[in-house]
Amino acid sequence: MKYAQITGWGKCLPPANINNDEISTIVETNDEWITTRTGIKNRRVSHVSTAELATLAAKRALACAGIEGKELDLVLLATCTPSTMVANTASLVQKNLGAVGAAACDTNAACSGFLYALQLATAQIRAGLIKKAVVIAAERMTWYVNWAKRDSAVLFGDGAGAVVLEASDTPSGLLASKIGCDSEDRNILHIANYGTDQDKYIATGPSDLLFEGREIFKRAVKGMSEACDDVLSQANLQLDDINVLVPHQANLRIIQAIQQRLQIADDKVMVNIDQYGNTSAATIAIALCEAVEKGLITPNANIMSAAFGAGLTWAASYIKW
Ligand code: ACO
To answer: Which range marks the domain in which residue 248 is found?
Structure first.
């Protein structure tokens, strides 16, 4: 059986930045509140579409892998902020990449989307159904943000990250994975007035990201920590075997709480929430790229990654680089 080796990676962060002082001129907030509650200092705001962010990240990942778009069998895009619903956004990215004939589809598991997509693409390669895939996570979260509401306006940003997977005999790539969803309380984090149910919500006006922050905080810490435990036992590994933790970047205090539960040292944890805020599915894809750039991830590194998001979805992965 083949493995799905990660042979390329790339990211795209739009250049426009809004820092905490600037956002304080739009809503009633301040740098001290945002920094101490979330760890966020800056967020990027895109003036181009999710498809364009995804295309740039994917092109960089393909260049890094040294392959061309036409070699791809699959373009899988994790996003909850698609440019278009029909046709799917992945089909436009496929066109932009020249990945003629490759399968192309979007997958939406909100903030857990990249790890969901990584498992789906890896499974296809390991089953021998395809040989080469690009897995992209791209989000334009600021499109959903109601800039009049300080609770959500300060949290989110835009960006994209991508990895190329290729069938290989080398035991690497995603080697253990756990994905799931607790749908019972799916309403504690949702956008009420998008999709074909919007007639029920029309009175609420433009998009509204509604969430119960404290409840999500607790569940995210528990969900991600337990998923990491599951994946470690699936891979027959101890925490000491892990070189790097790449967690979803929703709140610095959530990351620190997971770190504390798992007893992982600071220098093993990839954190960039101060720069980009919560880019939903894209946080882990971007953080993986930056961990490589920083030298935190080196060849053969054992990486643990975990995410939690709307659904309520959760995911954890063990990746051999
Ligand atoms: N600036 C200043 N004050 C604010 C702001 C703001 N931007 N936002 C809220 N407040 C006020 C509230 O109005 C409230 O005031 P009150 O006490 O007078 O009513 C006070 O701050 C405390 O609000 P809390 O919601 O209790 O603050 P908390 O410490 O829980 O932090 C936060 C809120 C940052 C959202 C936190 O709960 C959190 O990070 N939760 C998990 C992440 C999350 O929910 N992300 C969005 C979903 S996406 C995901 O990735 C899972």
So the answer is: 175-320
For ligand 1, the distance from its centroid to the CA atom of residue 151, given in whole angstroms, is: 6
Answer yes or no: is the C-beta of 216 below 6 A from any ligand 1 atom.
yes
Q: Is the CB of 194 under 6 A from ligand 1?
A: no
Give the 3-state secondary structure percentages of the chain, helix then strand then coil, rounded to 5.
40, 25, 35
Q: What is the CATH number of the domain that holds 227?
A: 3.40.47.10
pLDDT at 1: 87
| 47 is an active site residue | no
CA dihedral 112, 214, 304, 177 (to 10 degrees): -40
Interval 169-193 mean pLDDT: 93
Q: Which of 151, 170, 189 is the last residue of a domain?
A: 170
140-170 pLDDT, tens digit each? 999 988 888 999 999 999 999 999 999 999 9
Q: Give the pLDDT confidence of 184-225 residue by residue, as tens digits.
A: 999 999 887 677 776 665 555 556 788 999 999 999 999 999
Residue 248 a catalytic site member: yes
Surface-to-core class of residue 234, CB atoms within 10 Å of its CB (0-12 exposed, 13-18 middle, 19+ buried): middle
226 and 154 share a domain? no
- Tell me if 290 sits within 8 A of 270, measured CB to CB: yes
Whether 278 is catalytic: yes
In a shared domain, residues 299 and 157: no
Q: Is the ipTM of this complex over 0.85?
A: yes
189 lines ligand 1 (CB under 6 A): yes
Ligand 1 pocket member 308 (CB < 6 A): yes
Which of 37, 147, 190 for a ligand 1 pocket mutation test, highest count of atoms within 8 Å of Cβ? Answer: 37
